[in-house]
Amino acid sequence: MTPLRQRMIAAMQMHGFSPRTHESYLASVRDLAKFTHRAPDTLTSADLKRYFEHLVRERELAPASVRLFYNGIRFFYLEVLDWPAVDLEVTLPKRPQRIPELLTREEVAAILRACPDARHRTMLTLCYGGGLRLSEVLAVRVGDIDGERRLLRIEQGKGAKDRLVPISPTLLEQLRTYWRAYRPHDWLFAGRDGARLTPTTLQKAFTQAKQRAGVHKVGGLHGLRHAFATHQLAAGLPVQRLQRLLGHQSIQTTLRYVHWLPSAGEGEGALDVIAQLEVAHG
């Protein structure tokens, strides 16, 4: 490992970045060195500008990918090499503002029913019922569930923040049924060896259930989180409370759901979305 790589890892650790961010930022600097055939600490702003023009014009990377490379390289030069500023004068491509194909309650219910494995079905139910990210579901421990107060502790979610997510009575009963059947000790959703399941396992289960249910809308497992958010807003949950439930640092991130759902009401209570699935199915 080179000294520069060691310094960058140490800097990211000091900032509390997630392992995924570590991997992405290191990859961006590695790709820069591969393109220029020079050590990153010998480059100039002109070299960096040429590299990003290459990403946009020649490789035609998606806007999100270009911004990820930009953030990683900017961090490297500001925090590792102590450049006073990084002004590349590069016009980054705008993020396309697209409304995803949102799942209805009926479609969510159909997907869950079409998942034959009880463990995977419970995980997908928790994704939707708590509005959780895939990584958050995989990281749930048995001790994170407070049945008395009906709360789920999400430890070190995105942005390295803890939060408490309310569990509806319907969802809590399903989690208890799952626990009685599998008796997990540490990770709530563990593999046969007791270790955490991999993201691919649940992503594959969702895709297969979606196909069996005959749901052809574009989108992956994160669509359950989008469905939770839009269904809560449609039921009248204030956007500020939805922000806390989803663990968004910025209200602007949550407000996109209002854009996707202009008919959202202004109520006060959270919806028991799992119970509503039974109503939708009935």
TrEMBL record:
SUPFAM superfamilies: DNA breaking-rejoining enzymes (SSF56349)
GO molecular function: DNA binding
Span of domain Core-binding (CB): 1-81
Record protein name field: Site-specific recombinase XerD
Entry keyword set: DNA integration, DNA recombination, DNA-binding
Entry annotated with the keyword Oxidoreductase: no
Gene3D superfamilies from the UniProt entry: 1.10.150.130, Intergrase catalytic core (1.10.443.10)
Chain segments annotated as transmembrane: none
All copies of domain Tyr recombinase, residue ranges: 98-272
Domain of life: Bacteria
One BP term from GO: DNA recombination
